[in-house]
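Justification of resources, computational component.

The compute hours requested in this renewal are based largely on the per-chain cost of generating structure records like the one below. Each record pairs the submitted sequence with a full structure-token output. That output is archived, and it is also reused by downstream analysis tasks.
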Amino acid sequence: MKILLNLILLFCSIFTFAQIKSDSLLLVKTEWINKNLDYIRFDSDTLTYSISDKRHDLYFDLGKRTLTMKERFYNGGAGMKEESIRFKIKKLDKNKLVFHPLDSKIDLDQEGMRKLMYEPFFSKKEFILFNRENVIEPVNFKKVTFIASTCFGTCPSFSLEINRDGTLFYQGRIYTKEFTGNFHGKLDKKQMISLHKLLNRSYIASIKEKWNQNTKPVDNPRYNYMVELVNGELIEVSTNDQHPILDKLSQYFIHIPEIVELSKSSKKHSFEKPEITAYKIVGIEE
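The structure output for this chain reads:
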């Protein structure tokens, strides 16, 4: 009887471990979003989220259909301190993630959290998110212009224009290494397909209409996105703490000199000027 009980416990432990590992792999390889632009992205032990227009990065642990989000910070001479909030994972598959808080907001309020921004997670009874790869907003663009400022560090400052036929113009201003100055190039068919996919999954039209940066300006570069559509409409977004669903798109633009062969140009290209100039890093010349 004892042997049987031990075997049952061992089987349950193996099953639980396998489920947690499976959940972890599914979470990490997927970005999750909904029409309200609630978003979450998992890494090996950290996550990035935007809930109620507030972006934040946290640590996380997974249990048996439970998720614990944790904020870690140094508290003077007391060393490392940790604050956390627990969630129940109601549904998780390759298409859908549903979760809700297990902790009470009243209890968290009484604990006097200093760093963990838990309030946005109580804005809804539960959060229903979908696999980003399955949620597309087609962007039929004529021209895309991306302008990046520098920061209080070595963030590259440059302007980039990509046209529908793949031709591009690049102007590196500071911290752009050998690509400082004026350049031109052209994306091939495969590179254009990658750009189209990123734009179609960027939610940039929804971000323009529904999203506002609700965090204060931070020590990040300001990004201006200007997307001119074939029908003449212009989509413009300006931020220096962007919605995280734009991270892959901005990284694509930042790494253009590594993706496309650029040639030095003797002429200075005239780039579109942004109408939105919020979140400028004062004292840093572009």
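The longest strand covers residues 80-92. The first helix runs from residue 2 to 28.
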